[in-house]
Amino acid sequence: AQKVTQAQTEISVVEKEDVTLDCVYETRDTTYYLFWYKQPPSGELVFLIRRNSFDEQNEISGRYSWNFQKSTSSFNFTITASQVVDSAVYFCALSEAYTGRRALTFGSGTRLQVQP
Amino acid sequence: DTGVSQDPRHKITKRGQNVTFRCDPISEHNRLYWYRQTLGQGPEFLTYFQNEAQLEKSRLLSDRFSAERPKGSFSTLEIQRTEQGDSAMYLCASSFGGEDENIQYFGAGTRLSVL
């Protein structure tokens, strides 16, 4: 069975601070995908990144960066110089790869509030 | 706008009534998914279609729930004899294959309130 844990329920920061959202996962699969989604107050989940289990390179996209560590089963997400528009609930998710199963297993989310 | 479209956005119903939701995926996507999200939780997978074939169903999809995708385009999710526990946001997503394997794009959801 797959499981995703986001231990931080809510984080509040002041604009321009850096913030890291933690994600720890459990799976018996040898190949899998990891994802991050953003859910702003409007409610629509927005895809941010997909990472394949055999690609442990960290990724940077603008102010966003992701640190994938297979040894600790973690896929953490850092926002540098946070902005008010980053306020949202962020979900980490996991799925099998290269099988017929497509279901995403989500964590319970971390609510990020960025204060001006 | 060519994103995933869901209708209605909100539905209020009385316990025991049947409800049906519609999802229109991104036009070139052949895979379609339904999830349910309750307050303060992450989405939970319900079912998945590839074209018109329903390939995966969660244990959450009780006998009162049925999903269809008759022509491999739009999909409907019906809940019969609704219960208060069915109150949730129902999310639809779609994806394509190839390099974008399993990147699911979500609609804005249908919020169901069962009174």
Keywords:
A: 116 residues, mainly beta, 12 strands, B: mainly beta
Overview of the molecule:
The complex is a heterodimer of chains A (116) and B (115). Chain A is mainly β. Chain A is built from no helices and 12 strands. Chain B has 115 residues and is mainly β. In chain B, 0% of the residues lie in helices and 49% in strands. Chain B has no helices and 11 strands. In chain B, strands 2, 4, 5, 6, 9, 10 and 11 form a 7-stranded mixed sheet that branches.
SSE arrangement:
The complex is a heterodimer of chains A (116) and B (115).
Chain A: E1 3-5, E2 10-14, E3 19-21, E4 24-26, E5 32-39, E6 46-52, E7 59-61, E8 64-69, E9 74-79, E10 88-96, E11 105-106, E12 110-115
Parallel strand pairs in A: 2-12
Antiparallel strand pairs in A: 1-4, 3-9, 5-6, 5-10, 7-8, 8-9, 10-11, 10-12
Chain B: E1 5-7, E2 10-13, E3 19-24, E4 31-37, E5 44-50, E6 53-57, E7 65-68, E8 75-79, E9 88-95, E10 105-106, E11 110-114
Parallel strand pairs in B: 2-11
Antiparallel strand pairs in B: 1-3, 3-8, 4-5, 4-9, 5-6, 7-8, 9-10, 9-11
**H/E topology pattern of chain A:** EEEEEEEEEEEE
Structural class of chain A: mainly beta
Portion in strands of chain B: over 45%
| pLDDT averaged residue by residue of chain A | 94
Identify the quaternary structure here: heterodimer
